[in-house]
């Protein structure tokens, strides 16, 4: 237990408010750094290593109204063995589903290493009273969720009620206890880097284990710039003695190349201790297939058609 | 498991074709030197000999100046729109062959391929495009009163940005109707020689661009030649002063772009993470071989410890090594001489009482290398606080108030550039107003644009390069 933190790894509101009011960020600098890091050339064994890491960090996701038990079983078994023909390919970190499908996912992943993450708190809009969000979360946990992905209250955020944003996350963390809490900022709605940094601070102080870019439900999902801002906030948080927290990037990350660029940001801004599924995740549905294709390409020197890989 | 090393990703050298030996480029062709003397140009990252270049003696320079003098006759009769076409051709050809130029620049000079590829070459092409656009609009720039070219212009360029400095000088000189004798630095002549090949390829009229390679003596022959009408020099302040003395009493135009010891002022209300990146870029870009490098960090006293901690951690992520590796951030020091000079000044800094931090990294066995370094606990009277080191060495000074920051920033014989880091717009304007520097960057550093004039105050030189003002450096006032 970190002595600087209160129960559930939270930072008190007065300190949090102080940090939020002191947020400083420069857009030009953020853009410069991200474009420089995008020129890193990752080849051969370091590329293979990266691709395998990306799979092990993947939260394989489906969050659709049309999701059924059949779909969840299929995706979950893919998460366990993404490429049954290649034993060096690791399992995904987790599957990410709606609360109503947690039990199905849980039954499929059984005692494999794959975790079941559930979105909750009236994902994706979060427009519901806190009581509803709590019961939504409790339900997912009772169904067996190992991890909970919530959204921040953007209504309160834009109305300037940061304390409400903080309190809601904190009460949901109370419900979660030891269960991993990932807090979605929805950076595409927050728009400015200053807002993204403020929301990151609030979410971390309120006890989130991870901060996450997007629900994947809006067109401006994740961005590498937001990832950099969040990484720097996480770094600062650690420098205050509040411990290590994780980052999940989700929303529109479809190519292995893009994913590697995210990994470079984490590697160079936070260091190798963050290069593990305990501290960095990708939320994605189609990314996995491109990563599998790239691994095959590295090993066989030929691109293979998608029908060589099992459907998720 | 968490470990992740980047594998080497080497840009292929195969694209460049380096001759064993080069002559001068005079009157549209490569000619053997009258001196019959050559010197080796080596790769500073391996010490491998790349080629032998001619050392121009008095006669060689005389041939070149005479060729340029002949060249003026035709070039001054060439219509401005025709001159413009030649410059556009050069710009396009440079773009087409930019990878070749970039590899050559990194081989010969030691700078990371990332920089020669993403900074130097795009800037070079842009400069030619920019001045190609001005060639037929000179009257619009400064009115028809100022429109006469000097004639034969001698240009002496440094080794830190060889081709970029060539473009800063050659493009405006040709656009305004002058002809050129260029003397590249002795350690980095190869891209200028390739540029000469391009001039031949596009059929630039003979004598318009002439190139004499060599060392300092070659340069001094050029400066002292009787038919030179203008000298444009970029390099050290000491050589600049020598040139100015040599030209006194003669009707020869002069522009000088010399040294610097720029202050990078970080206020306590700056976005610190981004300021750290900016400070790192300010001093470690091109191994600190940058005249406008932010080599003096002025940090507000109350954030000193936090800032230095962040800075040291960020510095530790810099990747030092093979300039041709696409992931290299810091390449080789340009020459043995420069490395010796850096070592000497850094040792002096330590002896004076400065606290030296150097990153932990392995340096290649051959070649010239220096670890990215940071001095703290530096006093204003230490040599490292005043003298230009021209290497990857940052010195830190502290201040208490904006007034004091400005006072320290201006407390130097130089005045080329400065940086300001704060989130308050009003403070940026207040500070910039009071800094004696040719370029002041705010919340960024080392940003260049061909449309923006560049040049110094005080002993950093005079005259401007780039932009509309850059044309004036090659035009004589007349009415």
Descriptive report:
The complex is a heterodimer of chains A (312) and B (479). By secondary structure, chain A is an alpha/beta fold. Helix content of chain A is 48%, strand content 12%. Chain A has an 8-stranded parallel β-barrel with strand order 1-2-3-4-5-6-7-8, surrounded by 8 helices. Chain B folds into 2 domains: 13-258 and 458-476, Aldehyde Dehydrogenase, Chain A, domain 1, CATH 3.40.605; 263-442, Aldehyde Dehydrogenase, Chain A, domain 2, CATH 3.40.309.10. Chain B is built from 16 helices and 20 strands. Chain B has helices at residues 58-77, 80-96, 98-109, 113-134, 138-142, 162-175, 190-201, 216-224, 237-247, 272-284, 304-316, 336-352, 383-386, 402-410, 425-434, 467-472; strands at 21-22, 24-26, 29-31, 38-42, 49-54, 148-149, 152-156, 179-183, 209-211, 230-234, 253-257, 263-266, 296-300, 355-358, 373-376, 393-399, 417-421, 439-442, 461-462, 475-476. In chain B, helix 2 (80-96) runs antiparallel to helix 4 (113-134) and helix 4 packs parallel to helix 6. The interface between A and B is medium-sized, with 29 and 27 residues.
